[in-house]
Amino acid sequence: QVQLQESGPGLVRPSETLSLTCTVSGYSSSSDNYWAWIRQPPGKGLEWIGSIYHSGSTYYNPSLKSRVTISVDTSKSQFSLKLTSVTAADTAFYYCARPVTIFGVVVMGAYGYWGQGTLVTVSS
Amino acid sequence: IVMTQSPVTLSVSPGERATLSCRASQSVSSNLAWYQQKPGQAPRLLIYGASTRATGIPARFSGSGSGTEFTLTISSLQSEDFAVYYCQQYNNWPPWTFGQGTKVEIK
Predict the structure, then answer these.
(1) What 3-state DSSP class applies to A76?
(2) Which residues of chain B are within 8 Å of residue A42 when distances are taken between CB atoms?
């Protein structure tokens, strides 16, 4: 059973960089790694931030692309999110997630596995 | 692609049927997922491919539609079904986009 756990600072100062890590357990394959970050401002809806694939390819939400970097460290079973120049609008619950796999086929974009989420507040 | 859900809030009595709608601003084929989210929890995948229930999802949840119009039906609401429901398209990206959510509350 795939499990994901976010970690990182809960408070970030405006204009600084938000850094989060997602640790994955219960999953050993390196050939079909597809990982994503999704966020949700308190009381609001969900926003897809971006994804990284086993090939190293990354895909970002155009609204955040200039500020986002997603990377993976397969040796540590972790992937990370960096968001630069944060403002109060970046205050949100941040989730890491993985698409569901059906009969060995990854259903891209259908996120069947989620971390519990971590609240990051941007404030001075 | 903009995803629009209706209604914003749905008041339903336990045991009744709930019908939630999701409309895409352009065709997403059948690449549509539904999620349930309860307070303080991460979203839970209910439906993918517009109509396929995810593992462990009760049969009272069903999805239908293709192209731009989609529906999530909960045939007989149980107490644990009162939550917020989101649709999400994964046909055209980036980005994958979510609807704004429908809150199903107790009438």
Answers:
(1) helix
(2) none
